Amino acid sequence: MIMKNYINFLAVFFIFLNSCSGQSQILDITTPKEGFVGIRGAYYKDTKNVLNGYDGTYVYTNGNTSLKIKLQKNIKTSMNGAYYEDLIVGEYQLIENGIEKVNTLSRLTPTSNSNNISGKRVLTGTVLGCDDCSTDEKRLRLGFSDELSPQVGEIDIRKTTVNGKPAIIAEIWYTGPMAVREGQPKPKPAIIKGGKYLMIKQ
After folding, report:
1. Where are the domains of the chain?
2. 43-45 and 84-96 beta bridge pairing
3. Which of 120, 59, 46 is nearest to 94 (CA)?
4. Can you give the pLDDT of all 202 residues of the chain as single tens digits?
5. Beta strands in the chain (DSSP E)
6. With 0-12 CB in 10 A as exposed, 13-18 as middle and 19+ as buried, what is 168?
7. Of 83, 81, 75, the residue nearest 39 (C-alpha)
8. Closest CA to 201 of 158, 142, 157, 161
9. Which of UniProt's keywords are assigned here (predicted)?
10. What is the DSSP code (8-state) at residue 33?
11. Distance of CA 52 to CAs 9, 66, 110, 153, Å?
């Protein structure tokens, strides 16, 4: 009798253990991370598909200057191995006077998570600097880093159309590096200049 109870207990215990380890907590991507630290093993999922519709290649041209940005939605990626999240990631190519200055497009893969453009923040309406946005219009604010300098910042991406073609307005600005040691040379300026770019989807 004791042996039978012991076997039953072990069976129930292993079923419970498997059910716990086999499931990860699914949270919406807008769920705040306390202290910017996510819940270990959790999946911050784009449950409302607010990150959809940005995938694609977009090109800005002005004379002999061409800036290409490629964006994609990566599903259940992990930057730190502690938790997972859906992200918009991207890379770019800059050509000036027929000379390719930088090209990181090949770095973009379905599982990449350490990219020059990366994030999942969705802004709605006029929040944080879009005075002419409609009240329910959504746009992205992602991290942006310059490949050839220590300059880092952010990029706002707003959907629009140009002559009936899908397009985005991409606004780039830099916030760092924040400090330079005394006696050290000034940081190299960014190869991708800050500003607004009207980019047509290819």
Report:
1. 25-201
2. parallel
3. 59
4. 554 444 444 443 433 334 344 457 999 998 887 766 788 999 999 999 999 999 999 999 999 999 999 999 999 998 778 899 999 999 999 999 999 999 999 999 988 878 999 999 999 999 898 889 999 999 999 999 999 999 999 999 999 999 999 999 999 999 988 666 777 788 889 999 999 999 999 9
5. 26-28, 43-45, 56-62, 65-77, 84-96, 99-103, 117-124, 138-145, 152-162, 165-176, 195-201
6. buried
7. 83
8. 161
9. Signal
10. P
11. 47, 26, 15, 23
Backbone angles phi, psi at 8, to 5 degrees: -60, -40
Dist CA 45 CA 52 (whole Å): 12
Q: Which of 192, 169, 160, 155 is nearest to 66 (CA)?
A: 192
Q: Which two tokens stand for residue 167?
A: 């397009």
User: Tokens 């709605």 sit at which residue?
Assistant: 124
Of 51, 111, 108, 107, nearest to 79 by C-alpha is 111
List helix spans (H) across 1-40.
Answer: 2-21
Closest CA to 189 of 143, 156, 146: 146
pTM attached to this predicted model: 0.82
Q: For Cα atoms 143, 145, 151, give the angle at the middle one, nearest 5 degrees.
A: 120
Phi, psi angles (nearest 5°) of residue 16: -60, -45
